[in-house]
Amino acid sequence: MGKGQDLYNKAKNIIPGGTMLLSKRPEMYLPENWPSYYEKTDGCYVWDLDGNKLLDMHIMGIGTNTLGYNHPKVDEAVLNTLKKGNMSTLNCPEEVLLAERLGELHPWAEMVRFARSGGEANAIAIRIARAASGKEKVAICGYHGWHDWYLASNLGESDNLDGHLLPGLDILGVPKSLRNTVIPFKYNDLDLIRKIIEQNPDLGVIKMEVMRNEGPNPGYLEGIRKLCDDNHIVLIFDECTSGFRETFGGIHKKFNVNPDICMFGKALGNGYAITSVIGKRSVMEAAQKSFISSTFWTERIGPTAGLATLDVMQEESSWEVITEQGRKIQDGWKELNNSLNFNIKISGIPALSSFIIETDQWLKCKTFIAQEMLKNNILASNTVYLCTHHNDSLIKEYFDKLYPILNEIEKYLTNDMDLAQKLNGPLCHDGFKRLN
Q1: What one-character DSSP code corresponds to residue 42?
Q2: 215, 350, 364 from 209: Cα distances, Å
Q3: What are the Cα distances from residue 5, in Å, to 1, 50, 170?
Q4: 3-70+317-422 in CATH: which number?
Q5: Among 167, 232, 235, 340, which one is most buried in terms of CB atoms within 10 A?
Q6: Percent with pLDDT over 70 in the chain
């Protein structure tokens, strides 16, 4: 057992769940054998506690590091801030500068609030939107964090709370009184959201990811925008994940449809904690009528990193680089699909690509891929989040190692054999399923 797994076994006794983030639990990828912890990072490499240098062809800090790990310009800006002081009785000027910069990138947005995590930003946006609309019900499509307001969408009609609409999201501890306050809807179904609005006159907010696994049908986003305008509903786009990956700003710019509020996170600070809630003045000023406040939303590192990250993004056209390299990943999977005797289903925007093998042995396949790629010193599963350091040579290395693994999977699936025979530990866990 490596040092990482040994430490994780200790962690599970003193940290509920073993770690703070579901997506970082080793059980999600390779139970009992995932390295679990890191010593250092650089570019798109991670060193584990045993000193192994691992190529990260997986989720790059859960999608936070589009410029690669330890970008020198971003880190230098943060180090300078540390020398000056990170917290004070007074406010840091960088938050005003970052607010101005985000407004320049999104001329429709006139006001900005900051937080440090995506869940916080989503909760802030919902509080503001409910205050602005004067109505409590919310319709949602996509993933929007861990807070009660969102998990209330899984409070079904059953008293034992088993009416899960988003499988994999646990709701123990969420008050039953929130039932029917949040209504999920499926992406690209305009008739469904129209019906929800008709049946819920007290619906004040529609929150959705602009896109994740698939793009909008012609007229879909425009139709959502019109329905919100016609029914005095606040439209929120959650771009905590999609922002700065296909455009210099929100992916909604690509479709020329503006929301009333939009959130950014993950990529905005290239690994440093900063999230933003931008919006129209007429909506955002409702924040003054409520109470939205937190001490560490005022620290200096986050907005400093955000400003430096935007500068580097602009210099490198990072969104273009990661999109181009992401297309190469998707094209490589398509070529594998054409050469192997099973079907690979690909989803996601190029910079956030994923695939599944359509078989009832999928979790065994996913575990086997992680296991065998790790033997080649590559962190990998079925998802690849791109950064600017993922060059053609590294992509070739990834596919050179992946092909024989998938070829071995093909032999087992074709001959109807149990792939569990090839696993050195338990099956990985299944994650929750998104609406988009």
Answers
A1: E
A2: 10, 16, 30
A3: 6, 10, 25
A4: 3.90.1150.10
A5: 235
A6: 98
Tokens describing residue 46:
């991670």
Structure tokens at 305: 């990193």
d(Cα 368, Cα 373) in Å, to the nearest integer? 8
| CA contacts within 13 A on the Cβ side of 346 | 19
Strand pairing partners for 40? 47
Residues of the chain with CATH 3.40.640.10: 72-316
How far is Cα 42 from Cα 58, in angstroms, rounded to an integer? 15
Cα–Cα separations (whole angstroms), residue 395 to 58, 171, 329, 366, 390 = 12, 39, 7, 19, 7
Q: Going by C-beta distance under 8 Å and a sequence separation of 6 or more, which residues neighbour residue 265?
A: 117, 118, 121, 240, 241, 243, 274, 275, 276
Helix (H) / strand (E) element for 413: namely helix 392-414
**385's tokens:** 């989040």
- 3-class state of residue 111 by DSSP: strand
Closest among 427, 262, 399 to 328, alpha carbons compared = 399
- Cα angle for residues 258, 116, 170 (degrees, 5° grid): 85
**Tell me, what's the pLDDT at 421?**
96
* Pick among 3.30.390.50, 3.10.180.10, 3.20.20.70, 3.40.640.10: CATH of 72-316: 3.40.640.10
Among 435, 63, 401, 408, residue whose Cα is nearest residue 242: 63
pLDDT, tens only, 277-301: 999 999 999 999 999 999 999 999 9
What's the length of the chain?
A: 436
CB 370 within 8 A of CB 34: yes
Q: Which residue has the tokens 């005797």?
A: 341
Q: Which token pair is 267? A: 């990529």
Pairing state between β 53-56 and 378-379:
parallel
What is the 8-class DSSP label of residue 132?
A: H
**Which helix (H) or strand (E) covers residue 384, if one does?**
strand 383-385
Tell me the pLDDT tens digit for each residue of 226-280: 999 999 999 999 999 999 999 999 999 999 999 999 999 999 999 999 999 999 9
pTM: 0.96
The answer to whether 264 touches 241, Cβ cutoff 8 Å, is no
pLDDT of residue 1: 72
Contact 240, 121 (CB under 8 A): yes
Give the residue carrying structure tokens 């696993």. Answer: 423
